[in-house]
Every structure is written in C-alpha cells, then in structure tokens.
Amino acid sequence: MVTMESPSNTPPMETPCVKICTLDARAGRCLGCGRTSDEIAGWSRMSDAERSRVMAELPARLAGTVAATE
User: Fold this and answer.
1) What is the pLDDT of residues 20-64, one digit of tens each?
2) CA pair distance 1, 21, nearest whole angstrom
3) Which of 30, 31, 56, 65 lies most in the core, judged by the most C-beta atoms within 10 Å?
4) How far apart are the first and last CA of the chain?
5) Is 35:56 a contact under the CB 8 Å cutoff?
6) What b/e readout covers 25-60, taking b as 16+ CB neighbours within 10 angstroms?
C-alpha cells in the first residue's frame, strides 16, 4: 500500500495501489490492487468510509474468493 500526497493541512490518503496497473477485462479488476476501474477513477472522491470498505474487500478479491460480477 502507498500513501497519496496531500496538502499539508490534511492527512495523506491511503491507497492500495501497488503500481501494477493492469486491468483484467474478464474480472473487471486491477490485477495489482483488486479495485474496479470505477473505484480507481473515483478513489480521491470517495469518503473515508467508502475507501475503508473497499480496502476491506480487496484481500478476498485478490485471493479470487469474490465473484467478478459483484
């Protein structure tokens, strides 16, 4: 996991990006972090709660235990 830089008055935003940005068209997710293209595109606009929810789902996605059509 990496932390995105932010203005000095706000804490940095955590991101699951591991710099392996390859989308699996069949699964609809990034092979590196497990996020969908919509989640990647909207990451900076998500609330902390939304990002936390996605972060909690990623290990299962990457392990292949969650259906691709979710």
Assistant:
1) 999 998 889 999 999 999 999 999 999 999 999 999 999 999 998
2) 13
3) 30
4) 23
5) no
6) eebebbeebbbbeebbeebeeeeeeebeebbeebee
